[in-house]
Structures are given as C-alpha cells and as structure tokens.
Amino acid sequence: MTKKDVPPRWDRRMQQRLARGEAAALGELYDRFASLVHGLAHRVLGDERAADAITRDVFAHVWQHPDTYDPKQCPLRTWLAALTHRLAVQRLRTTETAALARGGPGTTEDLERKVRHASVAARADYIVQSMPTPLRAALELAYFQRRDYRQTAVDLGVTDDEARRRLRLGLQLLSTAHDAEAPDTPPGIGGAA
C-alpha cells in the first residue's frame, strides 16, 4: 500500500474503536458528523422528523455494524454521507410510493423526478460542506452577498486573479453534483467527493 493509499489515521482509529464497542467512539463520531448526516437527510426528505429518524438509523447502523466501513475504500465522512443518502432515498421512495398507492397526487415518474432532484441537492450540499474553506468563502460571498470577483477579492484580501481562481474551482466542484450516473448515487460518488 503506497503512502497515498493509506486511509487517514483518525478514520482507521475510529473504525477500530467502534469495532471494539467503545461507546465513547460513537459519541465522538456523532459529535463530529451528526450535523452533516442530519443536513443531508433533511435535504433529501424535506422533513425534520424524518431527518431525525434517518440520523438515528445511520448511527445505529454504525454502532451495530462497524465492520461495514472500510477505511481503505473512502473517508469515513464520505461513507457516512453515502449511507445517509441511501437510507434517506429509501425512506423517500417508501413514503411517496405509499402515498401514490393511497391515491395521492402524482405519478411514479414524478416520484423519480423528486428523488433525482433531492439527490442532486444533497450532493451539492455535501460538496459545498466538503470543499476547502477558501473556495467555500468565495462562493458564499459571490452567491449570498452578490459580490463579483473584484468585490470578493477585496473582501477576502486576495488578488483578483486568486478570487477568480477560487470561484472557478468552487463552481467546477459544485457542477459535479449532476455527474451521478443514477438517481441513487450517493454524495461522494459520481464526482461529488
């Protein structure tokens, strides 16, 4: 295994601690990633209670099956995001299919469109949360505060060229949210890592 292939030490240690059944490890993992998990679940489901339930389900799965995470495959953050996405999409499909079966509005095509839209939105959120702070700060200034690249450069204390570079890279990363091959592709897969 080359140096580049070695998983981050924290991820390896956390997986080992969870495999040993250390409750403190689960608490530490929850403190670090609960907001990410809840945010992604809420983005897919659009429902606070459902997002709370998915968050509980994700961390229960981690506690009961710590061996399903392999630090050599991907970072723990990405694995948790993919697990969250999978469980949230399953719940969305189940609840929406049940609503259709009860004669609710819409069609199965509407359901698939809703799943695709929620998946892209969740991947975009994950990308923004995961991108380096300088890129995220530039995008936030440009998007939320309607700054152009010159104003962004002044606000960040960088050159115009550096502001353009950060905005371009941030937008390139964000554009990968649509690169998934299928609607079930989780955040972190299909270019959204």
Task: Report a brief summary of the structure.
It comes from Streptomyces fimbriatus. The chain is mostly helical.
Please tell me about this protein's structure.
- With 193 residues, this protein is mainly alpha-helical.
- It contains eight helices and no strands.
- Helix 2 (23-45) runs antiparallel to helix 3 and helix 3 crosses helix 4 (76-101).
- It is flat, with a radius of gyration of 19 Å.
- The two termini are 22 Å apart.
- Residues 1-5 and 181-193 have low confidence and may be disordered.
Q: Beta fraction of the residues?
A: under 5%
Biggest sheet statistics: none
- Give the tally of β-strands: 0
By DSSP (H or I, 4+ residues per run), the number of helices equals 8
| Category from helices, strands and their pairing | mainly alpha
Q: Give the overall silhouette.
A: flat
Return the average pLDDT rounded to an integer. Answer: 86
Q: Give the helix level as a range of percent.
A: over 70%
- Stretches where pLDDT is under 50 for at least 5 consecutive residues are 1-5, 181-193
Alpha carbon gyration radius: 19 Å
